[in-house]
Amino acid sequence: MTTLDVDSIYGLAPGHRLQFEEAQQAWVVLYPEGMVKLNESASDILRRCDGKATLSTIVTDLEQTYDQVELRDDVIGLVSAALDQGWLKKR
Prior knowledge:
Elements: E1 9-12, E2 17-21, E3 26-31, E4 34-37, H1 40-48, E5 50-54, H2 55-65, H3 72-85, E6 88-90
Antiparallel strand pairs: 1-5, 1-6, 2-3, 3-4
């Protein structure tokens, strides 16, 4: 698992696209080798990885949006997995 810096900024890797697929009724990550269907929480996290917001800002935004606390570990886990899969890149 990739070690993350919460003050870093992450965005989609070149050749990857995030979009809503009507046929799937879900957000997906599209890339040259295929497609990954995302669940609601994964899509909420990855849509915020826009290459502008820090990871700590994303965590704060999600905690406020969902009136939840302690989402940091879940967000870091998903972003780390997305980096390992090559979907995201550190900016």
